[in-house]
Specification:
Layout: H1 3-15, H2 18-24, H3 29-43, E1 48-50, E2 55-57, H4 59-86, E3 91-96, H5 105-116, E4 120-125, H6 132-137, E5 143-146, E6 155-170, H7 183-186, E7 190-193, H8 201-212, E8 218-222, H9 226-234, E9 239-243, E10 254-270, H10 276-282
Parallel strand pairs: 3-4, 3-5, 7-8, 7-9
Antiparallel strand pairs: 1-2, 5-10, 6-9, 6-10
Helix pairs in contact: 1-2, 1-3, 1-4, 2-3
Length: 289
């Protein structure tokens, strides 16, 4: 007994006519008859009552028609699912991203993935910067979007986007444009800055900004999370430097003042990862380097 014989049986069980079934299954009538007889022989069960004028299902045939119809539908579903998995059209992709692009790049990216692969499940997470590459290397994440380009050998990084830094101040602050601040006006302002990390290109960019203004900022506190920084600024506890993509978060009570300093975004993945889902997702990105 094989799957093709079951398909012949189910078609004949619907048609109850050997010639019609043979034509529908693109097989000769004699070959179809041999396949049905072989199926009955392997099962040791009579499936059809045949006469010169009619073909009827036996009770055993009716039972198997009901059971095999359901089973064949399940098999076809499993085969289809297996093909989708093989082609990377279904499954789960786990993506870590910085909080700054939650309101800008991430919605656009998810919309693009969902349109191309509607059956794919997406898990979006935010992790500490110090843990992201470890989680990627241990297969707990599939893609990591960062503001730093890594030099880790087993991880590949490609630039996908760039935005600018903004000075964020309370809504009623006297700063309105970049021309409003200088070494003199910034002196005495309390800053809320990211956690210190000398290896971070993002932190180095902020340091270069202060160096260009020839000031040493008075840092009120350091914070890892941009949403928290914005809430602190809104509370009047200080001013901050953040990527201008935060302006898409719809935070009230603060204003963003664009600065002429560009911050880059990179997508990172495992070099040795042959997951077809990953390949499909990467094909949707427009790399800028």
């Amino acid at each position: 007994m094989d799957l093709q014989q079951i398909k012949y049986f189910l078609t004949l069980a619907d048609e109850l006519h050997f010639w019609n079934t043979a034509e529908k299954m693109n097989i000769t009538q004699s070959a179809l008859s041999r396949q049905i007889m072989a199926l009955e022989s392997s099962l040791d069960v009579k499936l059809f009552d045949r006469s010169k004028r009619s073909v009827k299902l036996t009770l055993a045939g009716k039972f198997l028609k009901e059971k095999w119809t359901k089973a064949l539908s399940e098999i076809n579903y499993m085969h289809q699912l297996a093909r989708e998995i093989h082609l990377g059209e279904t499954g789960t992709i786990r993506i870590a991203h910085p909080d700054s692009i939650s309101g800008s790049l991430i919605p656009e990216m998810v919309a693009s993935i969902s349109a191309a692969y509607p059956k794919l499940q997406i898990e979006l997470v935010q992790v500490l910067a110090e843990n992201q590459y470890e989680l990627l290397g241990s297969y707990k994440l599939d893609l990591v979007i960062t503001r730093d380009r890594t030099e880790i050998k087993d991880i590949r990084a490609k630039k996908i986007f760039a935005d600018h830094l903004s000075l964020v101040v309370p809504e009623d602050h006297h700063f309105n444009t970049a021309s409003d601040f200088s070494k003199t006006t910034l002196t005495g302002q309390k800053f809320i800055l990211p956690l210190q990390d000398e290896q971070s290109s993002y932190n180095l960019l902020i340091a270069d900004m202060f160096k260009s203004l020839d000031i040493v900022p008075e840092v009120f506190l350091h914070c890892e999370f941009g949403s928290t920084i914005l809430a602190l600024v809104r509370k009047g506890l200080g001013i901050a430097i953040v990527p201008d993509s935060y302006s898409f978060h719809g935070v009230t009570g603060v204003k963003f003042i664009p600065l002429p300093f560009e911050t880059e975004l990179f997508v990172n993945w495992r070099v040795s990862d042959n997951n077809p889902i990953l390949a499909n997702i990467l094909s949707l990105f427009q790399f800028n380097d």
